[in-house]
Design goal:
TATA-Binding Protein, 2 domains, six-stranded antiparallel beta sheet, four-stranded antiparallel beta sheet, 42% helix
Length: 260
C-alpha cells in the first residue's frame, strides 16, 4: 500500500518525550513517532524532525482540501511544537518548508495502531470481573471503560454531524474488534430516539449460552458516552434490548436523549 502526505521539516532531530506534555499527542506502537487526529487527518511528528499530514487511502488532492479546513489548527500545533522544543525558528518558516511526499509501506507501519484484543482475552476479562467482583461491580467497571472509550473517540475525531458520528462508531467497532455495528430504522416515540444499533458477531457475547443476563455493558456505555460527548449533554441513555446472554442471536442497543 502506498499513500501521499504533506511533510514539513523542523531541520533537526528532536526529543519526542518533550512533546508528550502536549496532551493531544499519543505514541505509535513503533515509538519513533507521535500522532494526533486533526479533522480527518493524521498529523505525525517523527524523531527525525519531520511533521507529516496524512490520511489513509486518500490522494493528495483530498488531503490538501482537509488541510485548508484545518489550517489554523495546523499552524497552532506547529507553534506548540516549536515553543515546547525551544527551537529558534518560526512557524511561518516551517510552513514554508512543506512539500508533497509519497509514503511507502515502511512509513505507514509507523502509525498502524493494532489495539484490538482477541475475543478470547476480552471475554476472559469480562467473566473474570463477574467472578471476582460480583455483578454490580463488574457492570460498573465495564460501564466506566465503555464511557471512556466512547468519549475519547469523539474528542479526538470531533464528528460534525450525527452521520459522521455513526461512521466513526462503525469504524471504531471494526478497529477494536467489538463486532459489526449497523443502524436499524425504528419509528420514534415521544422521547427523542437518537439511533438504534445492531451488533453482529459481538466480541463480548456472540455464541454464548443464555445466562438470563445482558452482557454488553461496555458496548452500551461506549455508545452512551459517544453520544453524550457529541451532543454536549449528559441526559443521554442507552439501553441494550437484545443480547446473546438473553437468548437472542445478535445484540441491539437504543440510544435516547431525554432533553433538548
Amino acid at each position: 500500500m502506498k499513500a501521499e502526505a504533506f511533510t514539513y521539516d523542523l531541520g533537526t532531530r528532536i526529543d519526542l518525550s518533550k512533546l508528550e506534555k502536549l496532551n493531544y499527542f499519543r505514541r505509535t506502537d513503533n515509538s519513533d513517532a507521535l500522532v494526533t487526529d486533526l479533522k480527518g487527518l493524521t498529523l505525525m511528528v517523527l524523531s527525525n524532525g519531520r511533521i507529516r499530514l496524512f490520511e489513509h487511502e486518500r490522494d493528495f488532492e483530498q488531503i490538501r482540501d482537509k488541510m485548508l479546513t484545518a489550517s489554523i489548527e495546523i499552524y497552532s500545533i506547529i507553534e506548540d511544537i516549536i515553543k515546547t522544543l525551544g527551537l529558534k525558528v518560526s512557524a511561518k518558516q516551517i510552513i514554508s518548508s512543506g512539500r508533497r511526499e509519497e509514503l511507502g509501506t515502511d512509513d505507514l507501519a509507523l502509525f498502524e495502531r493494532k489495539q484490538n484484543l482477541s475475543t478470547h482475552v476480552l471475554r476472559s476479562l469480562l467473566f473474570a470481573s463477574y467472578d471476582l467482583a460480583g455483578d454490580f461491580q463488574a457492570e460498573r467497571i465495564s460501564t466506566q471503560a465503555g464511557e471512556q472509550i466512547g468519549r475519547k473517540a469523539v474528542k479526538i475525531k470531533k464528528p460534525q454531524s450525527k452521520e459522521e458520528l455513526i461512521r466513526l462508531l462503525k469504524k471504531l467497532f471494526d478497529d477494536l474488534g467489538l463486532g459489526k455495528l449497523s443502524t436499524v430504522e425504528r419509528e420514534k416515540g415521544s422521547v427523542t430516539l437518537e439511533a438504534v444499533f445492531r451488533v453482529d458477531d459481538c466480541a463480548l457475547c456472540s455464541g454464548v449460552a443464555p445466562v438470563n443476563k445482558k452482557l454488553c455493558n461496555l458496548t452500551r456505555a461506549l455508545l452512551r458516552g459517544a453520544f453524550a460527548e457529541f451532543k454536549h449533554m449528559e441526559s443521554i441513555t442507552a439501553n441494550e434490548t437484545k443480547c446473546w446472554g438473553m437468548g437472542d442471536t445478535y445484540c441491539e442497543f437504543e440510544v435516547y436523549s431525554l432533553a433538548k
